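Model it.
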Amino acid sequence: MMDETTRDGRIDSIAEAMIMATPLFKKRMAKLWVCPSGSSTYVSTIWVLLTLKRRGPLPLTAVAQELGYSKQNLTTIADRLQKAGLVERRPNDADRRVVNAAITEAGVQFLRESKKRAMSAFKEDISRLDEGDIDDLYRSFETVKRILSKLDG
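Modeled.
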């Protein structure tokens, strides 16, 4: 049992809560993301698309490094995304030996639609809570966003 009265005890408790919450979000989100081909997709594919949308065309090795994925795993994801028409591979202008992955317009649209589905589902879930829980959840997420932004640097 953790001693939540000490700094280290509170840090342990926060880390454990974050680990426990991640699968809940991942499970919920997995139900919302469906590729245009009709097959379900994985959270990792969403991260790849979001990275390419935010950063522009990148070599697969750069995407893998940013997301902490192996090159082999990212190649499999990129192949799946390319087959679905969400990503395309292009030669790198600076070095023709390097191939960049780039999000397509279909990929951008997929992210838009996925976000709409996620927002709708979460809003439906949250609307079932009473006002006190909604207020608590709102304040909690505002606090989490503020604090996590300090760690993202």
